[in-house]
Hints:
The protein has 116 residues and is mainly β. Helices cover 0% and strands 47% of the residues. The protein has strands at residues 4-7, 10-13, 18-24, 34-39, 46-51, 58-60, 68-73, 78-83, 92-98, 110-115. A six-stranded mixed beta sheet has the order 2-10-9-4-5-6, with no helix packed on it. A four-stranded antiparallel beta sheet has the order 1-3-8-7, with no helix packed on it. A hairpin with a 4-residue loop joins strand 7 and strand 8. The protein is globular.
Amino acid sequence: QVQLVESGGGLVQVGGSLRLSCAASGRTFSSWDMAWFRQAPGKEREFVAGIRWSGGSTDYIDSVKGRFTISRDNAKKMVYLQMNSLKQEDTAVYYCNTRTEPYWTWGQGTQVTVSS
């Protein structure tokens, strides 16, 4: 069973930056497309950014294009999300998981709070 542990969140002002990290256990990590998701208070979890297993292709929701960058290090079993020019609407708990179902067990997530 793969375990996912997200970290790197925090409180940041509008326009600031954060780098999220996701550590995965398990031998099959490198063969899975991965993604970051987020869940804001009172809203459903949504896809934010995805990356192919090879790292050669990425995709983003429109609201974060040009501001967020997803990357991965298969040797370290890590997925990253560099978030720049943060906006208040980016406030949410951020999770990593496989790009599509079946999802692995969700981790605790990491809270990102953007203040004005």
